[in-house]
Amino acid sequence: MIEKSESHDLNEIHEIINDAAIAYKNIIPADCWHEPYMPMDELKTQINQGVEFWCYKEDGKIFGVMGIQDRGDVTLIRHAYVRTVYRNKGIGGKLLAHLTTLTNKPVLIGTWAAASWAIGFYQKHGFRLLSEYEKNKLLQRYWMISKRQTETSVVLANAHWTSR
To answer: Which CA distances in Å does 103 have to 65, 87, 107, 133, 147?
Structure first.
């Protein structure tokens, strides 16, 4: 079952993000990795900046989370994570399918360029990789990330996206 997160879900969301993010360790640049991958203060900041988390739950337990953020003329998918032990069971796909129904705007997703599994997942679900030029322009406009993260990331877009 997919439901919008509530304040009492915060600790479990934090746990899932940091559990699942271990997949990035030794994949993304070492200077971009830290532990925990997302500190609780950063998670709260993301929520305060408009990231709305949705949870895939079974028997009251959260197995996966994915955020959505309205950025004016586009919608961003943010922080998509599934507990390590529940990966490859369709949870991420169900969350992504649900979140994309919540908007009529083009949907953009940023991820690490070295995370080939993440890129492949989004491509399998109909997203296309954008050019380096578009990526740089979009990351600067819609995300608040470091220059280093911009250099080592990609952006994917759904079918509603047209180059602007």
So the answer is: 18, 26, 8, 25, 29
Q: How far is CA 127 from CA 33, 89, 109, 118, 123, in A?
A: 26, 20, 9, 11, 5
Total number of domains in the chain: 1
Q: What is the pLDDT of residues 37-72, one digit of tens each?
A: 999 999 999 999 999 999 999 999 999 999 999 999
Residue 27 within a domain:
yes
Range of the domain at 107: 2-157
Please tell me the distance from the alpha carbon of residue 116 to that of residue 124, in angstroms, as a whole number. Answer: 12
Q: Is residue 79 within a helix (H) or strand (E), and if so which, with residue range? A: strand 75-82
pLDDT recorded at residue 162: 78
Q: What is the DSSP letter of 143?
A: -
Distance separating alpha carbons of residues 143 and 138, to the nearest angstrom: 8
CATH number at residue 29: 3.40.630.30
Domain presence at residue 164:
no
104 in a domain, yes or no? yes
